[in-house]
Write a structure and sequence with these properties.
Its EC number is 2.7.1.25. It contains 10 helices and 7 strands. It is an alpha/beta fold.
Length: 287
């Protein structure tokens, strides 16, 4: 076909229009014939695909599992878990480049710094100060901010207890991927329930989950109220707000606790430095 077009371009008339030879018409007939053949194939496949689609929809509605299998040879089977059920028939595929190789490349060790605390306790402020300080030392970091994640990945979730648990689970799984990539992942999330934070700790290698508790008094957080959420919660316009009408379960054994020193709150830079000192002591800032 390309040869035909090239030949035709070299046979333009005086007006600049191409004089297509008769062979181009044969090409058109061939394409039409091929299209007809494809239409015939699609017609044969249509009932089978409709049946498969119908089967998927029924199974999804009945059990929450999408099951896609090729019964002709049993070689294709794909099940997607919903409603908390696990996927089946999946195998972990190992790659020759592993976490230790990525860490050697970056000259650091991947981990998850999980900053938890009440709204207004300074989690996001600390996360930004920490990532800036580590960046200045040539360390690769990424911040997973609770509000930011709800703009995309978790935008389908509410603040009901079950959705909060799913919110934390998703953030934890993403943080785990960053850690496996050799990146220092900083998650700043209220994460009010102890069991949810412990669940994230359990999916990471020992030592790679570093819990940072922003132990700031409720009165201080409410006085700050940078988003005006406490005021709305006190007025009854927000239900289930952590610290007001929904509990916050403080960590029992955090790696790092940041709190008021007397009546003075340390600056974000000072708190970030404490976290960096911990990372350095534990060997995370070198491969």
């Amino acid at each position: 076909m390309l040869c035909v077009l090239f030949h035709a371009v070299n046979q333009c008339d005086d007006s600049g229009f191409v004089n297509f030879p008769a062979t181009s018409l044969n090409c058109r007939r061939n394409l039409t014939s091929t299209s007809t053949n494809l239409s015939h194939i699609k017609a044969k496949e249509s009932p089978r695909m409709s049946s498969l689609k119908s089967g998927i929809e029924v199974k999804s509605n009945e059990s929450g599992i999408i099951n896609n299998s090729d019964d002709s040879n049993g070689s294709i089977r794909h099940e997607i878990s919903t409603k908390g059920k696990r996927s089946t028939n999946i195998v972990w595929h190992k790659c020759s480049v592993e976490k230790i190789d990525r860490q050697e490349l970056l000259q650091q060790k991947g981990c998850v710094i999980w900053i938890t605390g009440l709204s207004g306790s300074g989690k996001s402020t600390l996360a930004c100060a920490l990532t800036r300080a580590l960046h200045s030392q040539g360390k690769l970091t990424y911040v997973l901010d609770g509000d930011n994640v709800r703009h995309g990945l978790n935008r389908d979730l509410t603040f009901k207890p079950e959705d909060r648990a799913e919110n934390i689970r998703r953030i934890g799984e993403v943080a785990k991927l960053f850690s496996d990539a050799g990146i220092i992942c900083i998650a700043s999330v209220i994460s009010p329930y102890r069991r949810d934070r412990d669940a994230i700790r359990s999916i990471l290698p020992d030592g790679d989950f570093i819990e940072v508790f922003m132990d700031m008094p409720l009165r201080v957080c409410e006085a700050r109220d940078p988003k005006g959420l406490y005021k709305l919660a006190r007025a009854g316009k927000i239900k289930g707000f952590t610290g007001v009408d929904d509990p916050y379960e403080p960590p029992l054994n955090s790696e790092i606790v940041l709190e008021y020193e007397g009546d003075v709150c340390p600056s974000p830079e000072v708190m970030a430095d404490k976290v960096i000192c911990y990372l350095d002591a534990k060997g995370y800032l070198r491969a």
